[in-house]
Specification:
4 helices, flat
Amino acid sequence: MTTPHIIDKVTTSPAEVKHLISILDISKANGPELLSAKHLKSTGAAIGGTISKIFNLSFETGKVPQVWKEANVTPVFNKGQRHTVSNYRPISLLSIVGKLQEKVVFKRSYDFCQKHTLLTWRNSGFKPKDSAMNQLLTVTHQIYNALKYRTF
């Protein structure tokens, strides 16, 4: 689907950033900047305005701090014997502040798509409170119908 409309500018406000900080999950691990969600949450009211300015400068210049692009990769045990390397999977611990900025961008993008009706039922995996499972069920239903009515 196309639209003549564009997202010409993304900005955020101190209030929005403070809200995002206030709903952080403090059980999440630190990213490469070594800033814990707990510490960020406890200082959010004081530093939300500054972080908002950093985000807006990043949006204006198109540059993101390098540390927000980095990740600490750590092994997480799956199952089996702990001494076997193949029984671990890697996870990437990303910057908490970088993820907050991503939430701002997602909200602007999602709101834009909603306003201009760019998302359809086929975009299940990209909608809050929706699931890619809905799309999988739709495709499965279409396959069963094709087999039942031999429409292939």
